[in-house]
Amino acid sequence: MTLDQTISLPMIHQQFSVDYNYRVCFTKTLFSLDNPLFREVLQEDGNDKVRKLLFVIDSEVYRLHPRLVTDIATYCAAYPLEMRLAGEPLVMVGGEACKNDFSLVHEIIEAVEQRKIDRHAYVIAIGGGAILDMVGFAAAIAHRGIRHLRVPTTVLSQNDSGVGVKNSINYFGKKNFLGTFVPPDAVLNDSHFLLTLEDRDWRSGISEAIKVALIREVDFFAWIEAHTEAPRQRHLPTMETLIYRCAEHHMQHIATEGDPFEKGSSRPLDFGHWAAHKLEQLTDYSVRQGEAVAMGIALDVAYSHQLGLLVKEDVYRVVAVIKALGFSVTHPALFNADGTRLRAQIWDGLEEFREHLGGELTIMLLDELGHGVEVHNMERALLDRALLSLLDA
What residues are paired with 371 via a beta bridge? Predict the structure, then answer.
């Protein structure tokens, strides 16, 4: 046999598993010297070297908590053999603006290079869900992955976006177009940060608890239904309970549903989100994510009824809870010019959602409260009727 003859070689089959193990912790005043949690979390990596820490802080958190940087420095100085700051924290604009600005990702990566942050150091993000997404993305692509801690400071990030495995930024005008699936080393929920939230941001994250209750546990929905007044009165213990139960459901879903990195075309935790994402964009993000999700939930619940899956009484219950918590169930941007149909750009969002899933369209609806059911197409006429029905709900 000559060298130029084709040789049939056997296939090499590769298979290995990677375990992910991280904690979501609940505390108050994380960087107080009498709170050992932050130090304990770092010690879990088994590293006997001094850990370099690069902090990235949401500018609004920085403004509202003027002692935060000093408290961090004091805490690190108390344990010089275990941790040290890699220079001053980076303070960056939060909210959706940070996910639309790739220069911020570059700034973090540049700091990683200039401050010699290696794979045994930590990038620590403090802020709302958007800045956690953006910083997590930067940490995931620098050095092919740097240890990353999240310190969520909003209700929505503490109960939903900050506790999962996703990191992302917006690109090409599309939400979360660039991103990674890289879990953090830990999530540190400090309820002290919630006390300085605006009312809209305090309320906004509750919609994610409604979402997860509707698709996973009717008893949790009933609990929310019975406790609509306390969150509106900014009763912190009630909010802490809501956050804990919501985060628990999200983590259980990620761990047990068999598709944590979304290789398939189903994303049950995006119930109510397909319309919400477009609504955010069409209002130039003047509608908060949680507010948009509340409207998206209302629309999909009403559509579930139009499709014959859900009884009208359950639609009324969901809408009543959404309204009782201070949300709207519709917005002018959802409607066409004469207010008689769903806006075309919202309908087009279904195709963007399908593209983002990377497979067939899969939308989560309800066939009863606490139980989701997947559908693979939606009818425009029924969506129009569902939207219009919310005007009278």
Answer: 368
